[in-house]
C-alpha cells in the first residue's frame, strides 16, 4: 500500500553572483517550480554593464553585494543554511572566504565560468596554480560548452566534478518570434541586427567598417539595426542605412525581430554569448565571429548562417553579402534550422543540470 510522502522539503540555494542578467530569471523560476527551492541571490549592484532591473519573483530573494562585508556575507550564509551554492568564478575574494567554510561542512560549492581554453601562457600558468590555490574552494565546476569543459579539466576538475549547460536564454520568450515566420515567408526582411554593448571587444568598429564595405564594394541594400549602449555609439553617426536604439528590454527586442533578417555578432572576444541562443531561439540566421564561444553549439556554416575570420571587416562584409544574396526561401530554411539548433538547451535543462549534483 502506497503511503503519502508529504510535502517536499524546501531546498535552499545560494547564488554568490556577479551581475544578474535577464537569462538568469527563468532558471531561478525553474528552481522554485520544479525543486521547491528558495533561491537567495547576492549580486553585484555597482558598475553594472547594463541598466537591467531585477523583477520580483516568488521565493527568490535578492541581496545587493555592496550592502555586505565579508563578515556579513558569512552571517548571511549561516542564516540561509544552503543545500548547494553557486559562485561566479573566483574574482570576488569575499565570496571565496564564504564558500570555503560552506564546502568544509560538506555542502556542494559550484563555480561557473565561460572562459574558452586557448592554451596561452596566462591560462597555462593558471592551470598550474589553480589546483593548489583555488581548487579547494569548489566541489564542482559548471561550464557552458566544449571549450569550457576542456578548461575545467585543465584546472584540475575530474569528469565527475564537471556539469554542462551553464547558460540558456529565456526560450519561452524568444520562441514567440517564430510567430513572425509566416510574415517573413511572404516578404523576408532585409535588415541585419546587432544587439549588445557598443564597445571595442564586441567588434562594433568592425561592424561599421564592414557595413560600409558591404554597401560600397558589394552594392548591398540591406539596412542595419543596432541596439545597445556604450562608448562607441558615435561610430554610427552619419552612416546612412544604420538605425540605432538605446538599451531595450527583451519584450521590446521581440518587436524589432519582426523586421530583422539576420543577427550579427562580430565580437573580437566572446567567451560564450547567450545572445546567440536568444536569436536562434527566435529563428534567425546568424553571422558570427569565429571567436564567439556559442558558435560551436548554435551555428553550422551554410546550415543556419555563416562565420567569419575574427577581426576582419572585409571577411564580415563578404559574409553579409553572401547571406543577403540568398533567396527568401533559403533564408526561411536557415531560420528554421536556427530554431532547430536552439532546442539543445533551455532553462529547465540548466536547472536540472545544477540540481543533478544533489539528486
TrEMBL record:
<dbReference type="Pfam" id="PF00534">
    <property type="entry name" value="Glycos_transf_1"/>
</dbReference>
<dbReference type="GO" id="GO:0016757">
    <property type="term" value="F:glycosyltransferase activity"/>
</dbReference>
<dbReference type="InterPro" id="IPR001296">
    <property type="entry name" value="Glyco_trans_1"/>
</dbReference>
<protein>
    <submittedName>
        <fullName>Glycosyl transferase, group 1</fullName>
    </submittedName>
</protein>
<keyword id="KW-0808">Transferase</keyword>
<feature type="domain" description="Glycosyl transferase family 1">
    <location>
        <begin position="187"/>
        <end position="327"/>
    </location>
</feature>
